[in-house]
User: What shape does this take?
Amino acid sequence: MRLLEQLVSRFENRSAVIGIVGLGYVGLPLALRYAYAGFKVIGFDVDHDKVRRLNDGDSYIEHITTKSIREASERGFEATAEFSRAAEPDALIICVPTPLNAYREPDLSFILNTADTLVPHMRIGQVLSLESTTYPGTTEEELKPRIEARGFKIGEEVFLVFSPEREDPGNPKFNTRSIPKVCGGVTPACREAGVALYSAAVDKVVPVSSTRAAELTKLLENIHRSVNIGLVNEMKIIADRMGIDIYEVIHAAASKPFGFTAYYPSAGVGGHCIPIDPFYLTWKARQYGLHTRFIELAGEINNDMPHWVVNKVTGALNEHGRSVKGSRILVLGVAYKKNVDDTRESPSVKLMELLREKGAHIDYSDPHVPVFPKMREHHFDLESVRLTPETLGSYDLVLLATDHSAFDYELIQKRARLIVDTRGVYLERLPNVIKS
Assistant: This one.
């Protein structure tokens, strides 16, 4: 226990070195937070361009300022692609993607490749924390054997924990410091080390009994959102068929001070969590002979929403004597949520592909995404269109997919010939607005 006490003391007096592995939307804010908390921080990433930009004091994520990168660098933050330096930090925190494969099964390749790269360089006295969202059992079944194969005793020489990431880009109410951190360890000593690690940088740490409990906690959080979004998306379809404005209904229901939480419909779900994480649990549950019908149904509804929106676009154009084929359509917002530059799993991109397949000429406007990004499964050689009265009027239809605050909605309504609104921006009945 002497080793544990020394490690906890180093976290408490800020003499520990923190290693963040994966400098994306989760890892980079965490690295900056530890730097501001007074720690020397080493950020690891396989992307040499990211490493270069960070060491030059530049940011590649919109809501993270160049100023914050430079201030962190002055406090001792540095980025590197040299994973052989993994022995230097007292804590290694893994923040890498966990996507699905083509069969909607968990793809742990990023976690496993990272672990296989780090473990040969680990030393006695380190904490290894996994933050990537995954199914219950990953930390113990995949990381623990790799560490033990090096001859380390978990809970005595090396401390292994799981602490799920909780980032909400674009939400000014919460940041890395203020969002409570759940933490579970493989052993009680591991948990103590993990709690000490995170208590030094965040305001509140919530210990749980095991890494499996921590892993399931993250899945429950995101499945809760997925299921409720699926519910309200289905309600939208029903309300539309009945000629009822679903947004009016939601606003009225939200006046109830108890027993109701407002969720809002959309063209689908996006980001690195909601479209993916539920399927991690459904996959794992099958190993226990369980079929997660409720969770999978919500996923099916959410995944089908882009097709429903395209049908609304088709109907709207038909009513105005136009077909989708040959029409010029402008999609507003390609980021997956409001006021961010993250396009991962964005339903807007799916809408663009479906409409292009039907023969439409597609453009987009998004002040947060000036150039359509390189994506593994999607390709558009496009740049964001600047919204002017002339450009808006040149399109047969404007499809409002992501409701960024920067859009001039009054100008859009006045100048667009036809609008399909998937976000309930226009609450009043307007002649050129179709709610979807």
About this structure: The longest strand covers residues 17-21.
